[in-house]
């Protein structure tokens, strides 16, 4: 961003993660409304941002649908994507949700496990509440105070979920599950070595879920896994976690 001319302010409040960056950005925006625009890259926050980001990101599924029809002459059986706020998943799901033969599956950050307090699985372990101008599933205590999320991936440690994903879960239009840090790291190594493609830690959650799926469920099935980011940004962290010499 600096290379392209942006001035970057590092967030110093709270847990110094995505939630806190959104807090500071919205706080600055509402106190400088005359000369400030708010933009966000995920499907979270007040209307119309979740809708706008979904529509922009929908180009992913628009092109994926055209390409899979050209390559396979049919719709995929499964479309799998990781979920933090949920933008890449909403993008790849967008034009497949209308296809009855396609099941969309979103994968949350299981962190150290859903039975711990170190995860980012808002849909699995959260409850309805309000954060950043949206009503959705949130990780919160009994008093509505937001809990810290955890993930090996910086992009998935958000204590909420885009409101459209909450809606899709409630009406059963998409499936949701989670993957742990350990499983994601294993998938990161696996895809890198098998295909020469280094996925981001975020995307590694989707790859890990594919690896865990029941082989019978996958028999003769066509699957799209959305690799929403490159692993270049995660290599220093991966080096430390994998104990490379």
Characterise this structure.
- The protein contains ten helices and six strands, in the order αααβαβαββαβαααβα.
- By secondary structure, the protein is an alpha/beta fold.
- The strands form two sheets. The protein has a four-stranded parallel sheet, sandwiched between helices. A two-stranded antiparallel ribbon has the order 3-4.
- α2 (49-57) crosses α4 (87-93) and α7 crosses α8.
- The longest helix is centred in the last third of the chain and has 15 residues, at 181-195.
Write the SSE topology.
Layout: H1 18-31, H2 49-57, H3 59-72, E1 78-82, H4 87-93, E2 103-111, H5 122-125, E3 127-131, E4 134-138, H6 163-171, E5 175-180, H7 181-195, H8 201-212, H9 215-218, E6 223-225, H10 235-242
Parallel strand pairs: 1-2, 1-6, 2-5
Antiparallel strand pairs: 3-4
Termini, distance in Å? 31 Å
The proportion of residues forming helix, as a percent range, comes to: 25-40%
DSSP summary: helix tally: 10
Summarize the main sheet.
4 strands, parallel
Question: What's the gist of this structure?
Answer:
With 245 residues, this protein is an alpha/beta fold.
Key words describing this protein structure:
two-stranded antiparallel sheet, alpha/beta, four-stranded parallel beta sheet, 245 residues, single chain, 10 helices
């Amino acid at each position: 961003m600096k290379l392209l001319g942006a001035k970057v302010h590092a967030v110093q409040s709270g847990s110094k993660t995505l939630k806190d960056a959104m807090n500071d950005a919205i706080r600055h925006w509402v106190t400088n409304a005359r000369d400030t625009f708010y933009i966000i890259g995920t499907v979270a926050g007040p209307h119309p941002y979740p809708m706008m980001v979904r529509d922009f990101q929908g180009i992913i599924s628009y092109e994926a649908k055209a390409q899979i029809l050209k390559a396979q002459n049919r719709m995929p059986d499964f479309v799998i994507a990781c979920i933090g706020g949920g933008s890449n998943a909403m993008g790849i799901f967008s034009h497949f949700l209308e296809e009855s033969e396609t099941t969309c599956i979103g994968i949350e950050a299981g962190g150290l496990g859903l039975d711990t307090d170190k995860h980012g699985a808002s849909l699995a372990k959260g409850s309805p509440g309000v954060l950043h101008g949206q009503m959705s599933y949130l990780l919160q205590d009994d008093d509505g105070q937001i809990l810290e999320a955890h993930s090996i991936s910086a992009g998935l440690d958000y204590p909420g979920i885009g409101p459209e994903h909450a809606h899709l879960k409630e009406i059963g239009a998409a499936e949701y599950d989670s993957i742990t840090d350990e499983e994601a790291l294993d998938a990161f190594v696996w895809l890198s070595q098998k295909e020469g493609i280094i996925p981001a830690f975020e995307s590694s959650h989707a790859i890990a879920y594919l690896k865990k799926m029941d082989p019978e469920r996958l028999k003769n099935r066509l699957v799209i896994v959305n690799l929403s980011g490159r692993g270049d940004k995660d290599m220093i962290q991966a080096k430390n976690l994998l104990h490379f010499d």
